[in-house]
Amino acid sequence: MFDTIIMDGDKMDDKYIELLLEKCVDYHNSKILFICYDIEVEDFINNIITKAKKKGIEEFYLDKINIEEEYNILKNNSIEELKKMKYFDKSIWDVYAKKNASFLIIDTEQPHVLDDIETEKIAIMAKQKRESRPLYRKMVEHCKLSWCIAAYPGEKWSKEVFPNSKTSYLDLKNAIYKICMIDKDNPIESWDSQLERNERIIKYLNSLDIRMLHYKNELGTDLTIYLPKNYSFDSAKDNKVIVNMPSYEVFVSPIYNKTEGIVYSSMPLNYGNMIIEDFWLKFKEGKVVDYDAKKGKDILKEIIESDEQSCYLGECALVEYNSPISNLGITFKTTLIDENASCHLALGSGFPECIENGIEMDDDELLAHGINVSKNHVDFMIGTPDLSITGTTNTGLEISIFKNGNFSEDIISKC
Hints:
Structural class: alpha+beta
Largest sheet: 9 strands, antiparallel
Distance between the termini: 30 Å
Mean pLDDT: 92
Number of helices: 14
Helix content: 25-40%
């Protein structure tokens, strides 16, 4: 599967925390750190706080998630009662966004905890969490806030990923540290090198004047997306910090109302601790007009119908199949990691930074330029070993972008 990392556990955690604070938190400009996490990893969070204080961070806010308490709230209250409740209100995020805090979200999955909860109740919870922090979301979308999502293992998640292992927790921790390059002598330098490679690819893709991208593989994907004039590929490096840890992708926002064809998922999608598997989406004039899933179709329906624009694409991300995460051969069952093992798309909001001067545009201007605006953004994985992506420029030139699941030799030779 992967080589065991021979290193003292405490030293591993120390290296990871150093990477998070130096590359994923803008503590030089903000002395406030907002941390969102599951109570299962409280000891790890305490270590972060201790080391953050030594770097000069003066104020902390801890947004603790108790998934069992959330389960009981959802289970024991009616839909009408949930709509009136403030339990899932996240307006405190806006309070700290106004204070220019750095946001660090530690992702520890809790698979299957909500399996017997009605989908409509899950949707109400997700909507309350999402819509109660509009300022935070807007500042993130317009690159005006330091934020990062990073993973840390928990026991339930570990057993889901490694069901047959007697050392599942250590296996998952080792895997996370491997893909975050904590096994390297200097993880920060290793990430700098990865981000520099991403920048070279971005610069070349932006120079091609691509009009459309055609995706095709043996799963049945046959999809054409169109790029706006003055598009701009980007990476998960924002204001000198990495907003996803790990991140191996480069991405762009398509013209939201021009996508045509069908796309098949290549990995399960974990949405709010509920799994959607083996699904497909059919697009016409950018909109999802048909879909199905072997598991979780009702959840998929909630995503597509969460608002008027959530049925359109907001992101197209390129990730090589021959990549550090994919090569481990592990499905982590969290979008944070799995999306960085596979080319992926996202339903919902696009990225203002993916079009020239988009950061200065309001929602109406973004839509007029083809960038989707939605209150939701849900990534799903589509990459396969045989995926091909052909770009067509505005002059009609066809260029191989991806071949056999990876950047083509033409692209690599130019970068």
